[in-house]
């Protein structure tokens, strides 16, 4: 009776709509379920009460956020209406540690809720986290592929325009942020078309290849080589030719020795990973 048992449940529209004109009695009924003792759930939901932070534990909201995916899994997606308000309250909590905790688990919650509820209730929260502090954004970034693969293609493509924003951080010395971006982009290659890769991911990859930090550059060489492989395997081979010409122009003929060295390292990675047939490589 875990996630699988809830997959067959189909929501009707009334479950997905929100009504701000609920009476207190209707509000209470919306939190009623029959999976766990109601008193236990009410106790859990009360953890977001600000007075609890003053009298019980200053980090009680963080504990509530940490447990939320487990509670959602236990109740099943048919009872998400019991948790939705609490989730939104936590997502807008003043403490960044609470929002960070939710950011790290939003991909897990998306699996539990399914694509319909994810699109309606989680995507707006996800979009808010993308614009949050770096401490919160890193939670979203570390599982970017895990979350985006659960969205429909048209919704997923909307995030192509925002990926470049991950290059900008509150602290430019936060190189691990850019290294994580490069790692995630390697995974994201499987989710997008050759044109999307060439138009949107290629400029980011080239920017990362010129990063000031060696660790970021090394992951980026792998990213570019995987990009070459993906574009070569696509039916429209013009993209891979254009990409290789740009590699030659941008790095091989670079005036700085570091740019020319980057070209050699990218060639090494392409060769070692068999991303191209040798005649094409030559």
Can you describe what's shown?
This protein folds into two domains: 28-150, Leucine-rich Repeat Variant, CATH 1.25.10.10; 172-281, Alpha Horseshoe (Leucine-rich Repeat Variant). The relative contact order is 0.06. It is built from 17 helices and no strands. The chain has helices at residues 3-6, 13-16, 24-29, 38-45, 50-55, 60-75, 84-91, 96-130, 134-142, 144-148, 153-157, 175-188, 194-209, 214-233, 238-252, 257-272, 278-281. It has 282 residues and is an all-alpha fold. Mean pLDDT is 87; it is low at 1-20. InterPro entries: ARM-like, ARM-type_fold, PP2A_Regulatory_Subunit_A. GO terms for molecular function: protein phosphatase regulator activity.
């Amino acid at each position: 009776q875990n996630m699988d048992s809830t997959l067959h449940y189909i929501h009707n529209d009334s479950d997905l709509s929100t009504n701000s004109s609920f009476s207190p009695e209707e509000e209470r009924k919306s939190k009623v379920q029959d999976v766990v003792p109601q008193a236990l759930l009410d106790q859990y939901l009360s953890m977001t009460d600000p007075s609890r932070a003053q009298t019980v534990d200053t980090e009680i909201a963080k504990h509530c956020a940490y447990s939320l995916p487990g509670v959602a899994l236990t109740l099943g997606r048919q009872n998400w209406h019991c948790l939705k308000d609490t989730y939104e309250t936590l997502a807008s909590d003043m403490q960044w540690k609470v929002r960070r905790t939710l950011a790290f688990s939003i991909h897990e919650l998306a699996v539990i809720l399914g694509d319909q509820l994810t699109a309606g209730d989680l995507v707006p929260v996800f979009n808010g986290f993308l614009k949050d502090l770096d401490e919160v954004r890193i939670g979203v970034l570390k599982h970017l592929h895990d979350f985006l693969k659960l969205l429909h293609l048209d919704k997923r493509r909307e995030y192509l325009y925002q990926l470049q924003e991950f290059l900008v951080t509150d602290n430019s010395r936060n190189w691990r942020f850019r290294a994580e971006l490069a790692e995630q982009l390697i995974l994201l290659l499987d989710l997008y078309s050759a044109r999307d890769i060439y138009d949107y991911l290629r400029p980011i990859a080239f920017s990362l290849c010129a990063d000031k930090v060696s660790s970021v550059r090394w992951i980026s060489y792998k990213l570019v080589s995987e990009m070459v492989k993906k574009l070569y395997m696509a039916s429209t081979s013009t993209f891979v030719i254009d990409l290789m010409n740009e590699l030659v122009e941008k790095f091989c003929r670079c005036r700085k020795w570091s740019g020319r060295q980057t070209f050699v390292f990218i060639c090494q990675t392409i060769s070692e990973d068999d991303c191209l047939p040798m005649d094409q490589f030559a």
